[in-house]
Structure formats: C-alpha cells, structure tokens
Amino acid sequence: MGTNQELIWKHFQNRATDSFEGAAPRLNYLIKRIGRLSRVERPVVLNIGVGSGYLERQLLARGWRPHALDPDGEALAKLAADGVIAHTGCIEAMPLESHTFDFVVASEVLEHLSVEQRRAGLKEIARILKPGGWFLGTVPCEEDLGANQVVCPECGVVFHRWGHQKSFTRDEVAQELSPHFTHIRARRTAFVAFSRGLAGNTKSLIRLVLAKCGQHIAVPSILWQAQKP
After folding, report:
1. How confident is the model at residue 100 (pLDDT cuts 50, 70, 90)?
2. Strands 44-48 and 101-107
C-alpha cells in the first residue's frame, strides 16, 4: 500500500480498534466457510490486513495455524505476542514461500488497492496458496465512493475516509479472480448479527434480505470464494 494507506490503517489498527467491532459477523462467517471447505484438521490460514486482529485470534482459539500479513509492524507485534505468525509486508510483494497456505483471506482489502497492486496481489495470493487451496474475501458492493469523501482541513487534499479506491460489482470481482482461480463464486450479501432477541433478529433478517436484493440499507458486500487449480 502507499504511504497514505499505511498512515490511515496505522491509526485505526492501533489507536481506534473499536472501529472494527462491526466486522465480527463478517469475519465469523468467513471462519465458518474455512471450516466447511477445509480438508485438514488444522488449516494454515493467512489473513491479509489485520484490522483489530479478531480473525487471527479466533483462528488461534480453534487450534488452527493463523498467519498475518500487514505493513503495520506495531499491530503485528500485538498478534505475534498472542502466538500468531506475523509477516511485515504488502500484498503485491509478500515475503512468503510459494505453496504454503491452505487458505488466504482478504476481507475489505482489495478496494483499497490500485489496479497495479490488485493485479500483483492476486498473482501473489495464487503463488502462496497450495494447489487446491482457497481464497476467500469480501469487498463493499457497488459502493458510492463519493459519499465517503472528506477533505483535510490542513492541506485541502480530498480523499476517501477509509482509503477506498475501487467500487466493485460481482462480475468485476469474478473477472479479476479468473486469471488465477477456478470454482469462483461471488455473491451479494450482508453480514448481520443475530441472537439479539426476536425483535433484533427480525431486523437483522430484513436487513439481510434487503442487501441480497441490492438495497444499501444493510451495507451490502460481495463475498467470494475461489480455488487455486
């Protein structure tokens, strides 16, 4: 990632980790998908972009073998202290051996990258996956990038508040994955919390249905899984 991206995520991953609290339903779903797809008892999983470290710690609690990749050494040090294998680096040039991982996860990552970074990053993911391994991830669905633009009051630079550079459709996700992966499934969904009582669960169900229908009231996402040949 470029310097601005690194500064944005260094702030959120170390000074504002509560901003990731809403990610739990999404990450829990990805963990379930890994469990269903895995053919080994203790899969080796790389997560790209650590956020609060929630995913890695959940994988560790299951006895799996989590790795983390991020340019932010401060956030990685906290995960390493918990037993996660941490790698400082960027998606487009990962300091990792080929054919190493059963699964690679990139959830809410690709939208932050330039065209050149995504192309290089997807090639790298295919390289480090074992044959038959799976790439799982999410991006915002058809995001209106302009709706989250802000301006720096000091220098006047206009930027996306989360550093997003690309808005995706399902077809665009599948197209970008197709040079490197097979058995690609990309679908529109939303990740909502249940087990909140009847009223809360009803609201969550309505939001989920609306997201699947393309309504942005539920902040819809594109979820994919793709296999390395």
Report:
1. very high
2. parallel
Coil, strand or helix at 143: coil
Looking at residue 167, which CATH number applies to its domain? 3.40.50.150
The amino acid at residue 128 is: I
- State the pLDDT at residue 62: 98
pTM above threshold 0.85 = yes
Nearest to 58, CA basis, from 33, 40, 77: 33
Domain span holding position 196: 3-227
Angle subtended by helix axes 54-61 and 24-37, to nearest 10: 40
**DSSP-H helix ranges across the chain:** 3-15, 24-37, 54-61, 73-82, 115-128, 170-177, 197-212
Question: How do residues 101-134 score in pLDDT, each as one tens digit?
Answer: 999 999 999 999 999 999 999 999 999 999 999 9
Domain count, the chain: 1
Confidence of residue 159 (pLDDT cuts 50, 70, 90): confident
Yes or no: say if 218 and 49 are a contact pair by the CB < 8 Å rule. Answer: no
Beta bridge partners of 162: none
**Of the candidates 26, 55, 32, which has an alpha carbon nearest to the alpha carbon of residue 208?**
26
**Distance separating alpha carbons of residues 85 and 90, to the nearest angstrom:** 15
| CA pair distance 104, 33, nearest whole angstrom | 12
Q: In which residue are the tokens 């809410």 written? A: 108
